[in-house]
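[AMINO ACID CHAIN]
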Amino acid sequence: MVSKSDITTPCSFTELGLTPPLLHSLDDAGYKIPTPIQAEMIPHMMAGRDVIGQAQTGTGKTAAFALPLLAGLDTGKTKSPQVLVLTPTRELAIQVAESFKSYGKHLKNLRVLPVFGGQDYSIQLKQLRRGVQVVVGTPGRIMDHIRQNNLDLKNLSGFILDEADEMLKMGFIDDIEWILKHIPSKRQTALFSATMPRTIRQIAQKYLHDPIEITIKTKTVTANTINQRYLITNGFSKKFDALCKVMETESFDGMLIFVRTKVQTVELAEKLAHRGYGCAALNGDIQQSQRIRTVEQLKSKKLDILVATDVAARGLDVTRISHVVNFDIPFDNEAYIHRIGRTGRAGRKGEAILFVNPQERAMLRSIERLTKQKIERMELPTVKAINLKRVDKFKENINTALQKDISFYKDLINSYLADNEAAPEDVAAALASIVQGDSPLLLTEPKVQPRQKKRNTTVSHSNHAQLPPEEGMERYRIEVGKNHGVKPGNIVGAIANEADISSSHIGRITLFDNHSTVDLPFGMPTDIFRLLKKVWINNRPLKIQKTAADENRFIENGKKESRKNPQQKNPQRKRSKRIKGQQRKHSARPML
């Protein structure tokens, strides 16, 4: 086993023994220095060895196997494939096929065919009958062609299993074994995987011959060219508003937004389109031909934003993706790595922004542990920042227009000025107003409600009366008090930090000897309530619970009702014992 680190001293591509046409293509693409996986893998593959490559996405593994396989092709043989590459998704198949074409564009008669489900069989059959040297496909469609004798693999010399761990997750392992049993045993095989589960290692031991194993160890599993940030927000509407503010203040070229469901891709894409953004959805229910057109539109700048699910964006490699936004945090930490790996590729800078609900903080910490990187918290853009960006964009539009032929409009304005007594700047302002329409250019600062004075009331004895909670507030009891050294500021800080509640929304706090009460906004979500039950203050658990109804009864003079004489007259006692029992049971039930 050969293990290398990202800090390996790089060599040049010319030292790897690649042919001049391939070096020419690399020079065209601006590639000068091979990545660690390329520097270690290419010499072994050029020598004909079977290899196992373990490296994260975005490390350049496609070139690591494509370049040596292209170097060994006999492009005179066009009737049957010499190289077969298996990928888990159609998007990755298309991407890998395009890479083969790009690296081999100076090779004569090179033909590469992506094969996947969802595409017309007749198109694939026509290409196969014409003859191709390289086939890149998904397991299901490759199996179909083998069964129907459309795929003649007698001249196959190279077999690649790409992203084997993803194949395992998607349930393709049995299909892969079936294909391996139906291809020539005398071949060169390369297996690539970001992780090495036991099943994948068993496949390698069974079907690879004395392989060289190369593991690229990295200090972090995400590229250091990606700036990672997270934003605390909650609920679809608030997340959508936050997304729009982020998009107004971030300078982005192409953006990829990830959500969890197919329905959300369409919903979010439509809402962004209504805001004037060039946006489209990308999910597994969209026909493959439309998905290909959508990706091409992103590449050609006809679209700027794609809203996608994890599967649909698998293998997506578009140079202009500068930002990846995780609108929904992924349940699988490795999915996060694959998501943000769509940006910051090949040494380019990228931005990754993660939206996190308050109850998802544990998932955020789990991602940080896996990536071995601290994700920086970002604040929601302010109205002032958004307005500055809008003004800058307005001025940019003027500069762009001045570069065009505006002689007709210039003559028209001069004619207007000759006929009317108006200053040129007033005319320009009027035209700007016409262009802007009824929608104001600048946002207005929200009215700030005057902050109420602190309502923390310290009471010495528990038998003193309390004022009732204000409208929209509910009272909670916590098991820390004056005898434990607690102060109102300790309670405010603990609740604000753990539940992500602004301190201005925390109401009256009353300290008693061995417990305290705190008023919080009505209708606290259950998940936040669970978080608060785990909080500790001054080395004591909060044990928060909603106060029972009979703890908050008051009479007109402000004194609490006495409960010392249980025999005092009360019209309620005329009710049946059954009803009284139900009332007591109801009042004792936790109000979550």
